[in-house]
Design a protein that fits this description.
Strand content: under 5%
Number of strands: 2
Shape: globular
Number of helices: 17
Order of helices and strands: HHHHHHHHHHHEEHHHHHH
Radius of gyration: 22 Å
Strand order of the largest sheet: 1-2
Distance between the termini: 35 Å
Length: 499
């Protein structure tokens, strides 16, 4: 028996990394550096776009900046669907993660150059790279555990700590370099972080055994060859179309604004979602149990989309509120407003082990996934409700205490720990094994829809009174969270024994 095969057999009892498989450490640190790069750039993105050209920014108004921000953050997650398909059918999850990381690093370094062309090129490269990496690395985490291994949810919570370690460090480093020295230096620092992630991933690959190395086997060699031919054809057509579109925009042949592009992308996102779920529910050869579980995936998709539409305003409306309406000083010491972006990640690092311990400790009394989702939605709504009085105080032009945002990020952290790692784990358990990567893409499609909505809400930052904006957002989260709690029993029954 080969060494790789032995690792695969022994993996269910591997407890080398805090009681979990050794390969979890490789994926932990890879995702840590990928999130460092993503959140480092995200902490600066809307501030850079709305900063005056004299201050090195792009000078966009908040409506345009919100549209671009929403388009970018939604596409980052939307392309996890084709990213999952490519991994499942063509190259396997392991190669998809590596190629995605290289594309992400290239995108950040592109944004290090001060031009509008390299700015947009960088966003496109990061979108493509994240689509290949984000969903597939989560699939690899799930494959570390044997079916029925009760460490899986706890493993995803530990993995989530890796995500948030990178997210905590990124605004402190990239935010300081970008806001205090040079915007593009901050973007470059994000690229350096992704390079560290690539090095770590390559060196630690030996701990992953055989998982994710090969795509799903085609029905025949002829079918495999035909699949590659179709993929290459569509790839070439898509590349030519994108290049032609970019050249036409650059030359002024197509006088299209960023807001119009974002609107068109929104329609594309809506159509994609409808078509995909129509195929999911009415097509495919699913067993009765699989079909019911797919319905649950649809419910979780809707809940995730609403949750992320509120939670991901951390980089848009809450970032603007921190920069324009919040006091950024403690005991006479001033800090960059982007540092607020580290609060959520810091709280995750503090409390993720507590939640991981809690889910294991509760055992048979552990709340079901639908109940956890409902708690997450209520929590994210309550976080915005806390900001309503702060927004009223800020209407007079006063800078409010940083404790308001601190409290909001703390409540949002508890909400996230109820929903996000649990959602990742649920997708790996509910999805049919033959489409595991694609189904993980469904989870990130929910994040895509949510990010798009959240970005568009940022467009109303100057058009609506802030107390009204925050109040409406809070109400949606709380109401739909209560509704999900009320429906938790029938949803749990559809899960077919999956907890």
């Amino acid at each position: 028996m080969s060494t790789a095969s032995m690792r695969e057999v022994e993996s269910p009892t591997d407890r080398a990394f805090f009681g979990h498989p050794r390969g979890l450490s490789t994926l932990f640190f890879t995702e840590m550096w990928e999130r460092f790069s993503y959140y480092g750039m995200r902490a600066l993105l809307i501030l850079f776009m709305t900063a005056a050209p004299a201050a090195g920014g792009l000078g966009f108004d908040t409506a345009v900046a919100g549209a671009v921000y929403g388009l970018y953050t939604s596409m980052v997650y939307m392309v996890t669907l084709p990213g999952g398909w490519i991994a499942d059918r063509l190259i396997g999850q392991r190669r998809a993660v590596l190629y995605g990381a290289i594309s992400i690093a290239s995108g950040h370094f592109s944004m290090a150059f001060p031009s509008l062309t390299t700015f947009y090129l960088g966003l496109v490269l990061i979108v493509i790279g994240t689509g290949l990496l984000k969903g597939n690395i989560s699939v690899l985490v799930g494959q570390l555990y044997a079916p029925g291994d009760n460490r899986r949810d706890a493993g995803f919570s530990i993995y989530y700590m890796g995500i948030n370690t990178g997210a905590f460090l990124a605004p402190l480093i990239c935010g300081f370099l970008g806001q205090r020295i040079n915007w593009h230096l901050g973007f470059a620092a994000a690229g350096v972080g992704m390079v560290f992630g690539i090095i770590q991933y390559v060196l630690g690959a030996r701990h992953l055994g055989n998982i994710g190395l090969q795509p799903a086997r085609a029905s025949s060699p002829a079918a495999a060859e035909a699949l590659w031919q179709r993929t290459i054809l569509w790839g070439v057509v898509s590349l030519v179309a994108c290049v032609a579109f970019g050249v036409a925009l650059y030359a002024g042949v197509l006088p299209i604004t960023p807001t119009q592009i974002a609107d068109a992308a929104g329609y594309l996102l809506l159509i994609t979602t409808i078509v995909f779920f129509a195929w999911l529910f009415f097509g495919g050869e699913w067993t009765p149990v699989e079909r019911k579980r797919l319905y649950v995936i649809g419910v979780f998709f809707l809940a995730a989309a609403l949750f992320w539409s509120e939670f991901e305003q951390a980089g848009s409306t809450l970032n603007l509120f921190a920069d324009r309406s919040t006091r950024t000083s403690i005991l006479g010491w001033n800090f960059p407003s982007s540092w607020f972006q580290s609060f959520n990640a810091l709280f995750i690092i503090m409390f993720a082990p507590v939640f991981a311990w809690l889910w294991v400790r509760l055992r048979d009394r552990e709340p079901s996934s639908p109940i956890k989702f409902g708690m997450g939605l209520i929590g994210v709504g309550v976080g915005f409700a806390l900001l309503v009085p702060a927004a009223r105080a800020a209407e007079s032009g006063a800078l409010v205490s940083p404790l308001w945002l601190t409290a909001t990020y703390l409540v949002h952290t508890f909400a996230e720990l109820c929903l996000s790692p649990v959602g990742l784990s649920s997708m790996t358990k509910l999805a049919p094994a033959r489409v595991a990567g694609l189904m993980m893409g469904v989870w990130f499609l929910g994040a895509s829809v949510g990010n798009f909505i959240g970005g568009r809400l940022a467009s109303f930052y100057e058009a609506w009174p802030l107390p009204n904006l925050f109040g409406v957002v809070a109400a949606f989260g709380i109401v739909f969270g209560i509704l999900l709690l009320a429906l938790s029993r029938p949803i749990k029954a559809w899960m077919g024994g999956v907890k």
